[in-house]
Amino acid sequence: MSDPATLLRLIRTEGVGPQTFRRLRERFASPAEALDALPGLARMGGRRGALRIPAPADIHRELDRHAELGARLLFLGDADYPPLLALLPDAPPVIAVKGDIALLHRPIVAVVGARNATTNGRRIAADIAGEIAAAGHPVVSGLARGIDAAAHAAALREGTTIAAIPGGLDMVYPPEHRDLQARIAEAGAVIAEAPPGTAPLARHFPKRNRIIAGLALGVVVIEAALRSGSLLTARFARDYGRELFAVPGSPLDERARGGNELIRQGAWLAESAADILANLPPRPGALFPDARIAAPPAGLAEPPMAEPEPGDALDRARREIPPLLSASPVGVDELARHCQFSTPIIVAVLAELELAGRIETLPGNRVCLLSEC
């Protein structure tokens, strides 16, 4: 088993996003070997300055802080890591969990929606979340105002709930949910990808939303504008192959337009929990019958992946791939369709560019030029 401190040091290194972490895990036999290789990989991507790698003392302080909070770190590849979340192409390399880790292995349903929800929307969210929780499904949401809070509170009354938060485990947002977050940690689970002390900034919310979608068998949207975080969660659900449900609403209400559009695009129409429970896969494995649900070996102990083809092809890819990127995020799969390079070469070049600080990897397995994102 890999040393947690060394593994966390790799994950917290500048430029090591989820996709680059996967690439390093496949390429190198240990976290220590990957750490040693990072400066050279960053230079290959065009980095001029030194790569910021956390000092061991900083990592031990983070580990101590998690212990103080009563949290446990789950690394991608650990047996206790959520199995559906592990299937994401951009699965978090590590998550901190405070509460009942066993809940992460149960069939989870997500309930999300507007912060400025109507009274009726909150009541519908409470009814649906409560019945889903009573049926034995933990309800995951984002601990936001409105629909999220109504869903969490009802699920706690009838069963249990999971909160995925955008900051560190020691941060509460919004501040009036301090008691709710504490009750969820006591009777359910609170999950954070960011280290302790991380403020819930706007750029962290899409990362949180992809965790909500990734944990769940299905995502239920209740009141969402056409441009909203809830619709982003719905898009992640579709990208990840999860069932998608939406509660219809009046076309005169801007908060109903997002859900109505999802139904128009093929989401299940949901008027009650029964509509959702009847259309969930019977078990996690049924969602991906050809996927391996069991967790891979811990750490970076898998057999090293074959190097991308050396020579002219890799050098040419380093020249030709960056001009294909811009301010507009592009999916890695789409990028592969528009160039003539093999997947190992594309992934290797993107890893070098991320370590060099030239690109940013975004939730949904997308990338864009960092200076223009």
Describe the structure in your own words:
The chain is globular. Strands 1-2-6-5-4-3-7-8-9 form a 9-stranded mixed beta sheet, sandwiched between helices. It has helices at 4-11, 18-27, 31-44, 56-69, 83-86, 119-134, 147-158, 178-187, 205-215, 229-239, 254-264, 273-277, 284-287, 312-320, 332-337, 343-355, and strands spanning 72-75, 94-99, 109-113, 139-141, 161-165, 189-192, 218-222, 243-247, 268-269, 330-331, 359-362, 366-369. The protein has 2 domains: 4-54 and 309-372, Winged helix-like DNA-binding domain superfamily/Winged helix DNA-binding domain (Arc Repressor Mutant, subunit A, Orthogonal Bundle), CATH 1.10.10.10; 83-287, Rossmann fold. The chain is α/β, with parallel strands linked by helices and 373 residues long. Mean pLDDT is 90; it is low at 289-306.
Query: What's the total number of strands?
Result: 12
Flag low-confidence runs.
289-306
| Through-space gap between termini | 37 Å
Number of distinct helices:
16
Strand order of the largest sheet: 1-2-6-5-4-3-7-8-9
> What is the helix fraction of residues, given as a range?
40-55%
Strands, helices and their partners?
Blueprint: H1 4-11, H2 18-27, H3 31-44, H4 56-69, E1 72-75, H5 83-86, E2 94-99, E3 109-113, H6 119-134, E4 139-141, H7 147-158, E5 161-165, H8 178-187, E6 189-192, H9 205-215, E7 218-222, H10 229-239, E8 243-247, H11 254-264, E9 268-269, H12 273-277, H13 284-287, H14 312-320, E10 330-331, H15 332-337, H16 343-355, E11 359-362, E12 366-369
Parallel strand pairs: 3-4, 3-7, 4-5, 5-6, 7-8, 8-9
Antiparallel strand pairs: 1-2, 2-6, 10-12, 11-12
Helix pairs in contact: 1-3, 1-4, 2-16, 3-16, 6-7, 7-8, 9-10
